[in-house]
Amino acid sequence: MNGPAFLSLISGIVFGAGLVVSGMADPKRVRDFLDITGAFDPTLAFVMGGAVTVMAIAWRVQNRMSSPLATEKFDLPKISPVDRRLILGASIFGIGWGIAGLCPGPALAGLVIVPDKAIIFVTAMVIGMGLYRFIDTRFSENNARKEMR
Predict the structure, then answer these.
(1) I need a labelling partner for 87 at 20 to 30 A (CA). Which of 3, 50, 94, 98 fits?
(2) Could you state, in order of their start, the residue ranges of all structural domains in the chain?
(3) 38 phi, psi to nearest 5 deg
């Protein structure tokens, strides 16, 4: 295993451990955070606030670095505008998160903690990712053909 892959593995393990320790791998805690008129639990807001703070510091440090520590160059996503696809995707993600009480990170951690419950979500997630790739590829091919005409 090369250096960047090993660091990614370690980062994923630390992330998963953080989800478990903070209780964010528990769907009930997430649903309670979203239940503002009932058994509201603000814990998730503090976890998110901590994550945003750490990431804000990381971005500031990264901006001052000429290259990353474990590879030759930074491979950062490009900034894209807020568009219909982003809003639709975020909405679907949020609805699924609210219904299941899980998002991808906690679901993968759940495969280790409570696999019988998490496997349903992870299976549906993988199917959804595959379906997206299939549909996106089909639309991209169709649009490319139309542009050639």
Answers:
(1) 50
(2) 3-148
(3) -125, -115
